[in-house]
Amino acid sequence: MQKEPLILGIESSCDDTGIAVLLGHRILSNVVANQEVHKKYGGVVPEIASRAHQKNIVPVMSEALAQAGIALDQLDAIAFTKGPGLLGSLLVGLSFAKSLCLSLGLPLVAVDHMQAHILAHFIEDEAAVKPEFPFLCLTISGGHTQLVKVKSPHEMEVLGQTLDDAVGEAYDKIAKMMGLTYPGGPLIDKYAQSGVPRFRFSKPKVGKMEFSFSGLKTGVLYFLRDELKKDSDFITKNLNDLCASLQHQITDILMEKIQNAVAHTGIKRVAIAGGVAANSEIRARLAKVAEEKAWHAYIPPRAYTTDNAAMVAMAGYFKYLKGDFCDLSVNAEPRLRF
Ligand code: KG4
Ligand code: ZN
Questions:
Q1: Are the C-beta atoms of residues 3 and 26 closer than 8 Å to each other?
Q2: Which residue in 55, 240, 262, 283 is a FRET match for 331, CA 20 to 30 A apart?
Q3: What percent of the chain has pLDDT over 70?
Q4: Residues with beta carbon < 5 A to ion ligand 2?
Q5: Which residue in 247, 270, 330, 267 sits closest to 129, CA to CA?
């Protein structure tokens, strides 16, 4: 039997510097250096992010190799995130990947970050069942919100996406309005656990498989402005209920779109992916709806939802099997679309 390839994955599209080693579908190591520095600015500052990647990337690689117990010369390929993402951040991972390939004589594999989020479902994990093709995937992150028909690891079709803000972006911006630190998504999730969803905000009127979150953001902004005029402690007094209301409304929207996509395609296998797929209510509601409607729901382990390099190595593995390599003239594509 042929040996499974050892693939090093590099993720540097935004503010997490990640390097992972996979043997086939199995993770040998998955190291992420989070850039806490952005918290004080309330969002990612691109130039600071690139500088932090530059500082972190070698130590993160050394740690990933040490944890995997392998040396560089045992690797079979290097996979990196080509886009979408922040140009300066992508260039750090890309240049590092190129240098490794040049010095080690290895093939270079370019990975689409959004496809990698989806293909994270194929990382071997006791707690998760791998989806069967074709399946639908709702990819929800800080930069994107997409409903995707996944026909194979190589063939994906975007059925609909956001017309403005991504869902994670809405979470983070609304959290900022409420005085929470960046990234606000996990904090809203946390406070929502103790709240009651008693506030309602307007729902966007867009196509059946399209999304829009900027109206919700503005709606919350005006609502808070009016309430704060009446009571300057409104947010503090109602934080849990505000978070629960917001989370409930966002989950309602997402569930409705998934149901529309199932009706449109007839595919009853539904996955979620991306950082916002770590959200407790979205996970719980999808599991419940799937049970009621006899769908298969694929809910990834939380560790593979937010940006990580294991998903990049996983996506790289499928391209490696096909011999889909790129040459060293490859460039980063901040607006890459598949
Ligand atoms: O996929 P990701 O790590 O990075 C991008 O590719 O954008 O997603 C990051 C996003 C952030 O907006 C963050 O607030 C959100 O995922 N997020 C969450 C949760 N955990 C992370 N949003 C809601 N609930 C969570 N538990
Ligand atoms: Zn991401």
A1: no
A2: 55
A3: 99
A4: 141, 307
A5: 270
pLDDT digits (tens, 9 = 90+) for 113-163: 999 999 999 999 988 899 999 999 999 999 999 999 999 999 999 999 999
Which tokens in the block code for residue 269? Answer: 């296998």
Ligand 2 center from residue 15 Cα (angstroms): 10
85 lines ligand 1 (CB under 6 A): no
pTM of the model as a whole = 0.96
Q: Is the pLDDT of residue 186 over 70?
A: yes
Q: Is 308 in the pocket of ligand 1 (CB under 6 A)?
A: no
The residues near 61 (Cβ < 8 Å, ≥ 6 apart) are: 8, 19, 96
DSSP state of 93: H
Structure-token pair, residue 191: 């406070």
Smallest-distance ligand from the CA of 15: 1
Give the separation between CA 138 and CA 158, rounded to whole angstroms: 10
**Residue 29 tokens, joined:** 């190591």
Q: Is 44 in the pocket of ligand 1 (CB under 6 A)?
A: no
CA of 141 to the centre of ligand 1 (A): 5
User: Is 142 close to ligand 1, i.e. is its CB under 6 Å away?
Assistant: yes
Q: Is the pLDDT of residue 1 over 70?
A: no
